[in-house]
Amino acid sequence: MRRTSPLPWNAARLTLLAATLVVHLFARPALGATPSATPDSVVGVWRNVNDRQQLMMVNTTADGGVEFLCQGRFFATTMRRESGFVGIARQPDHLNVESSLYKYSIMHVARVDPTMLHISFSRMVDQPGPDAQLWEFVNRYGRDDLSKGGVADSTLPKLGERVYVEEFPVAIERVPPDYPAWAKEKGIQGTVMVQALVGKDGLVKDVHVVASVSGLDDYAVGAVRQWRFKPAMARGKPVAVWVSLPVKFTLH
């Protein structure tokens, strides 16, 4: 008997979930939540306490959200709540080959202490999942600081916004993407095209997929977020600019 995904939600049910999540986040506080001060920044690199090979990158988005990315495990865009962060998580669904290769759930993130996060996945917006993961802080990597209130830097250009440059960014450190065994076994290959926002410090501030390869987008985004650049220059000063980058996955 073929095993099915525990959360086999189609696009219509996912849309309903997103609408419900927005209502819960903005209409009322979490049940049983205790008001607390704005947490210190969670932006940076975190490591799974029980599986130290798993690294998670956390970054702010252009609209003030917070992204959590663990390559091959999950990708979630969340919003701040009094109890932490809550959002929709996308996870690879290797068992349900007839689907889009993803399953969806609600991700709950709460801070245990300044260097530890509690993460779980659930079907409920107001109730964390039963299986918790503990993630320990590793280091920061220069992204926007959530201690600013989670507000994105308004000086950064928006996706598609033209910026005058005289010298374009040059990659000085490229991190290759993980190429999961399950994708190779299924013969999945191709090039994921992304738009990356390279800041004045040469660090990647944001990434958007513009040409997708089913099941491999998160691996491409996770790799590009770790790239380092010589920043773009204009009138003798570094400037932030969006650049197009191909991330290739080839079987041979």
Structure write-up:
The protein is 12% helix and 39% strand. It has three helices and 15 strands. It has helices at 11-27, 181-185, 217-224, and strands at residues 44-48, 55-60, 66-70, 74-81, 84-92, 102-113, 116-122, 133-139, 170-173, 190-198, 204-211, 228-230, 232-234, 237-239, 241-249. The radius of gyration is 19 Å and the shape is globular. Mean pLDDT is 77; it is low at 1-12, 22-39 and 142-152.
Count up the helices.
3
Name the poorly predicted regions. 1-12, 22-39, 142-152
Report the portion of residues in β strands: 35-45%
What's the Cα radius of gyration?
19 Å
Question: Care to give the gist of this entry?
Answer:
This protein has 252 residues and is mostly beta strands. Helix content is 12%, strand content 39%. The strands form 4 sheets. An 8-stranded antiparallel β-barrel has the order 1-2-3-4-5-6-7-8. It has a 3-stranded antiparallel sheet with strand order 11-10-15.
